[in-house]
Amino acid sequence: MKLPSSFEEFTPDFTDDEDDGTYVFRCSSPGLYQCRESGLVFDMKGEGDVSYRIVPWERRLLSQHGKKPAGPLFDISCQQQSVAQLHLPHCEIHPTEGCNFLSVAHIHDEGIEFIRPEKITETHLIISITGFSAFGNVKEEDSPLGPIRALVLLFYKPPVYPNVRSYLNILLLPKNIVTRNVKRTRKKLFGLETFIDVPPNCKLWPDRLYTLSTDPGNDLVWVQPTEAEFDAESNNCETLIQVTLEDITGDIELSLKEKSDSSCVWKRRVRLSPQGLKRGLTSAEQLKNIRTKIIEGITNANLQKLLDRLFDVNVLTYDDKEFIRTERATSEKNRALVDTVMNKGDQASSEMIHLLCGIDPCLSRELGLICENPEPN
Asked: The whole model's pTM is what?
């Protein structure tokens, strides 16, 4: 959700509480600021700390007013009252003049009100605000159907020794969901997975059926269910389609097609098995085998990238990351990182091996990892 260059992007602070996660934007001067995590844009009158988190919709309350959700519901607060306008991302592809069915729900202690946007851009609804609480995009229940910007998100569950079976879990979601929250919720529901960072963007029609095919597509690969319906109102983080793989290594090509006419709406080639180490060893054992080379080989710049990415996928906690960074020498930081991840078990070790392939392909090849198609830095 890119906006003109006059918008300054920022990465918010994030507090991962047990029940919810809170984002914090610390602003020091007036301007327009876009959150990289949520797509929200804040038009700031001056300095201030803006806190926001995603809260559940009361669908029955919306239905009483003939409305339905059209994006996340953000609970927003700013003690300094320094937010002049709020830009909420939407997914509609209708021409600007054809989006009159969109509005912003403002839910507060006194009830709910629906705010007509001052402006609708290709990506955002813009409203002026004076008070704070919960804001979210809604649409009329009888709004016209049309394709929306959507995401295909991939979560890989690698095999754990001695099993060879692995799983690729596929989600179809509206583009204005917050990916970090999806990752966080899935970790609570399903444990540690590898989020496969490939371009997820596509256009999908609400309530239409889509099918997924794979290449290779043989007896070692099967897709369940064979078709799934795209729910544009959903923020459900559960798996919609699952690909089960028996002892598959290397690349696999995925194609998502609309069932009615077999037109392809999304196609990607991804690597599902990054480890090129000894078979028969667990990921933690594999990591232990290359521990010394990692300690000696990771540069400080790549270490910082690895720490951030392991934190983003919830392998490392904030305390873990800060503890590792307190070590003085890079080699000592590397040693603390490897030992911390190994102690967290096989799934955490597998995640580190996978991320290392993308961050430092040269070192990965020296370590014996398969990285023909590394993730971009």
From this structure: 0.72
